[in-house]
Fold this protein.
Amino acid sequence: MVGQAEAVTAGLLVIGDEILSGRTKDRNIGYIAEYLTAVGIDLAEVRVVPDIEDEIVAALNALRTRYTYVFTTGGIGPTHDDITADAVAKAFDVSIDVDPRARAMLLERIAEADLNEARLRMARIPAGAELVANPVSKAPGFWIGNVIVMAGVPTIMQAMLDEVAPKLRTGVRMLSETVTANAKEGDIGGPLKAVAEIHTDVSIGSYPFMGEDGRPNTNLVLRSRDPARLAAAVAAVRMMVAEVHAARGTVGA
Amino acid sequence: MVGQAEAVTAGLLVIGDEILSGRTKDRNIGYIAEYLTAVGIDLAEVRVVPDIEDEIVAALNALRTRYTYVFTTGGIGPTHDDITADAVAKAFDVSIDVDPRARAMLLERIAEADLNEARLRMARIPAGAELVANPVSKAPGFWIGNVIVMAGVPTIMQAMLDEVAPKLRTGVRMLSETVTANAKEGDIGGPLKAVAEIHTDVSIGSYPFMGEDGRPNTNLVLRSRDPARLAAAVAAVRMMVAEVHAARGTVGA
């Protein structure tokens, strides 16, 4: 049996005033969600917090005690508002200082004469952390305990995720199948509920959308780690949809 | 003096498995962030949680005790996975049932014969809540205590936000000014920190970007509710940038 016990979970902490003010539109949540799902990790919660140390520490501690992994984005640049590394060190109660390995990485791109105090901020790494290479602009992320700290710039974050992904423990991949009902959500909600109550081990989501023909339509998304149970639920949903159409005299899925 | 005491804050709770699986890319966080900022409400925190009642209740209770308002999106449709209204009733410890006002709104769009049990789910409203009209598809949101429950479909959510906005208490609007440094973030990080340490009542964010000329550039975003303090900090930042360029022999902002 493939059960919940094998699930590997993650929390995501997005750090940055610019997301909360709306000045910058986050592009990382959707990317990370899709990426983790694809490798068999369930993203279970996301939080967005401002550049305030106590807020970052509190959210990080709440998430890291609860999920297999926590990913963070943002706040690891060279300016005074980049406080993620210090907040992570505080959350883990470890010291933080310029890391010679990180400094060496910065020097691959930055001349020694330009490695001022601001840029050296990007080499400040909590004690005991492993570095996460940044092939885009060198300044590394890091991995401490179950927390993986990444940049906020999407291209850099994506490269860092590629770096760490092979090292992550992954669960049995969540399988997903979509049945398009060719019906309004409200017309299938009742019978769908009955199917969901029988197939309790398969997650069934209902997502209305406007079809290209201008008529309301509904996608039913079934998710399970067990192929046989997923197939059984998909068959039940297809039959339910056919019955709804037969009863209404409409053309089914 | 215009102080923090006058700030009106908000939390945002995004509800839905489809956001966490990456199947649907959220388009509401950025919209709501920008909208609230524009009317003088500070979005202080965002959480994304799955369609699990205990998770919704816990997040809602954490946010509603902390911020002036909490906005939620998602989970108010006609299917079994739409559990937001029930979760909100549970969080407030009030009863929930089909609300005659909400039922009447549904009947503006749905024939009585089609108002099945599934569609009536959309009229289930916690006791004591005010309805939020939905000019797009009629099924209302609602407002209970300091919590405003909205649809997840962006066009409907946006219409609901327009409905409630005139009734919200708003703070003194946050003013914002951007100085483009024409310099790499790492070249101004040190002197910028010095400016930020003097102008502690102005929030100063630093956002690197790649200029159209292909050179790294940096936007410095200054935010305050006090026009005079903002102007003083902007002047200090402009002077700092000019000094950095003079010292490096480069062309300034």
Observations:
- The CA atoms of residues 13 and 72 of chain B lie 5 Å apart.
- Chain B is about 40% helix and 25% strand.
